[in-house]
Design goal:
The chain is mostly helical. It contains 3 helices and no strands.
Length: 97
């Protein structure tokens, strides 16, 4: 039962990684004018992704120095998620087996 919970947590982390990547790509598309924020679907998608990713990204933004227009907080968040998946959950799963 515990192994299934660990696998489910790994699945949720992987899903969150996809959400962070989608948020980054959408922000690039908005910045370069490929999609229009005045479109209701784009606006609702942007707000939903922002609501899900911003709490974690804000934490990493506080830890990093100001690099001007370059925001490395998504990279740090993805590295943290990969660390959780491979090291923490991997160790827990190996200990349960």
């Amino acid at each position: 039962m515990a192994v299934r919970l660990i696998d489910f947590a790994a699945y949720l982390i992987q899903l969150y990684v996809y959400v962070v990547i989608a948020s980054v790509i959408l922000s690039w598309l908005l910045t370069f004018g490929v999609v229009n924020y005045n479109n209701p679907f784009v606006r609702s998608l942007t707000q939903a992704l922002h609501a899900v990713t911003e709490p974690a990204l804000a934490f990493f933004r506080r830890l990093t120095p100001n690099l001007g227009a370059l925001d490395i907080s998504p990279i740090l968040l993805l590295l943290f998620c990969f660390f959780l998946q491979s090291v923490v959950l991997g160790s827990l799963r190996d200990a349960m087996l």
